[in-house]
Design a protein that fits this description.
The longest helix is centred in the middle third of the chain and has 23 residues. With 793 residues, the protein is an alpha+beta fold. The protein is globular. The termini are far apart. The protein contains 12 helices and 53 strands. The strands form 10 sheets. Strands 1, 6, 7, 8, 9, 10, 11, 13, 17 and 18 form a 10-stranded antiparallel beta sheet that branches. Strands 32-31-29-26-22-21-20-34-33 form a 9-stranded parallel beta sheet. An 8-stranded antiparallel beta sheet has the order 2-3-4-5-19-16-15-12. Helix 5 runs parallel beside helix 7 and helix 9 packs parallel to helix 10. Bound molecules: ligand MIG. Ligand MIG binds next to loops.
Length: 793
Amino acid sequence: MTYNEFIPGKLIEVKKINDNFLLYTENGCIIKIAVLSDHIFRIRYATDGMFENDFSYAISSRFVQGQVETTYKELNEHVEISTQNLVLSISKQDCKLCFSDLAGKVICKDEKGFHWEEHHHYGGNIVKMSKVVHEGEHFYGMGDKTMHLNLRGRRVSNWAMDTYGFKKEEDPIYKAIPFYTAIHAGIGYGIFFDNTFKANFDFGSERRSVTSFWAEGGEMNYYFIFGPKLIDVTRRYTQLTGTPELPPLWALGYQQSKWSYYPEEKVKEITDKFRKYCVPCDAIYLDIDYMDGFRCFTWDKSKFPDPKKMVSELNEKGFKTVVIIDPGIKIDEKYQVYQEAIENNYFCRRADGPFMKGKVWPGDCYFPDFTNPKVRKWWSGLFKELIEEIGVRGVWNDMNEPALFEIQGKTFPDDVRHDYDGNPCSHRKAHNVYGMQMARATFKGVKKHNLGQRPLIITRSAYAGTQRYASAWTGDNIASWEHLWIATMQCQRLSTSGFSFVGSDIGGFIDHPTPELYIRWIQLAVFHPFFRTHSSGDHGEQEPWSFGEEALKTVKKFIEFRYSLLPYIYTAFYQYVTEYTPVLKPISVYDQSDQDTLYRVDEFLMGDHILVCPVLEPNAKSRYVYLPKGKWYHYWSNVLFDGGKEISAEASLEEIPIYIREGAVLPFYPVMQYVGEKTVDQLTLKTYFGGENISSYLYEDSGDGYDYEKGIYNRKKFKTQSGADFFKMTLKSNGHYEPSYSTYKLMIYGLPFTPSRILMNDKEIEVSPHFFNNQCLTVITDSSSFISLELYK
Ligand code: MIG
């Protein structure tokens, strides 16, 4: 291989233009440093004096660069740019960067730093960066990677791939999210390499003391994000790349899918069985066979003679219909979608002119160029009939890596051309965002035609920022215990990579799970934001009742549990959408000061207060659980445990160990067969004695539609204080939403004393009528006036 290597060399001049610092080097390189906030620096390199057009699909249009006070200093050996939290020093000798905190502690510094190679084969360059790995430094993030959360000593790459039956450690797979977080000496930071070309990340694998990342083209363009808390690194990255709208509440319910349910009678049989067995369910999925010859936006009328009627009948029974839409458009002169795309030149072309032809389900297909804004607009319009007239409420985008059959590399050849929103390029640059742009166009279309209701979009492929448009599932997994482990890795990892609305195919897509595996999978997935069983359908049945009566009981109990947790889960979503807080938090993120958490992957938090400890092995009766510091109530027995150590937890098949943080207040709904089935007339607040000044939140709105954008919602903040002879709980409410319930059922667990005085809203009330049993006090109170409860020994 012939190539020229290039490094910036000596610094010769620094200019400040608006908020950017431009550093010129002796080798003609320009380094552009933008200070986006007190915590975020953006760094770009131009090797030949010119920057690329500044365009990114990842960065959210809502992200506004703040007015940041920066100080610039020129010193003997280096120049320094600092904010209130961070100091970036650049060596005059070789332009290497070093980030440190105000106390002078090095957070992250260049090893070789930026370098560049001309690559004759690719007709482009390779942009590289290398940083020093510190003693005791750990790395996390990177989207849907299948290995252990802690990436130290590993190398991964980003190139979206259809990886049917992927294996543990297999890489790359479906998603490409070039963002990692790191921690050393207790300080957390992150790097987002916003480059869509095939990219690689090496975390001390090739050389133990070096982390590097490089891409096969494009610009060295990365964001350095300071914590020092890991959760804030994720939150700042998520703010930069955006969050979705609030999902409709039904989309947080249980969903049932298979490849495929057809004809209509079969769909009805399945949905009827949910109601017959009283297993809650909100959505039923139609896979590719609902279409006429796999033509998107058509129906096979022999299987579904009257889709509109069917969808509305399903809706009456509380089922939303979600359908699959793939990117491949069948080459068929008589097919309207094809005709329109041909007339308007919407399909991707090869470098030398012809359309990009590829085989997928419909046979030979052409593929819309979703990186063209005109194509996205047209695509959005195609949803009119499906959504507005037929009444479908969610769309599932598959095969959007894009995936092709019978071709080496399983995707478009490198030379395929894309518009890239007016920055024409080859597939090498557009590949990783193709699926994202399809999901974007789909989201816009479904939302536009959804008559004011909130849409649900699910995507398989994703690049950084895709979370703004869609939820995601983890692709074609297998019914194995190893894949149950992979699912908990992927969902935690995606959550820390800005993508919270995720889940796996429950039970496994390929092969048939044993009843035990299915139960354990359901128990884990109750705590995953996207909660759907899906399977390839070429083996046995995979519905909650397919595993015998005993299994059904447990599965039903856990799906019901999900429905009672909906207000808690919805609140965690609200915190994600508005405060960028990930819904799932690995315990290393929950308490990074505790070294023992840095390699733990088998426990995680959902929302603020629930610690989930899935059972990932067959025949388990118990498992070891690491409880983070603090005190935790075992949810099923209400027994209190000291954290900061490993304990052995009961884990019979009817139970998954979960723990509630002391001092927490958790809101519960009554069980329903689907969201909206019943009017909630009482909200249960399970409250756990202990801790000092613990806050809990509840967000509520109508659960669908956009009234919340007009301020029709409530934010409630509960605070608890506990002492040897007292307990106090207060509520501050804020907002204009009128909930349907009129009472709270307060259940206070773990009281170490029998209360002899109770004050409700500052007034003494009688103790005796309130049920006190098993250390749980139950008080029912008017919800519109409740502000405080005090208990005294
Ligand atoms: O080539 O639509 O990941 O969920 O059921 C397989 C059929 C295509 C792959 C998806 C899977 C879906 C299946 N699809």
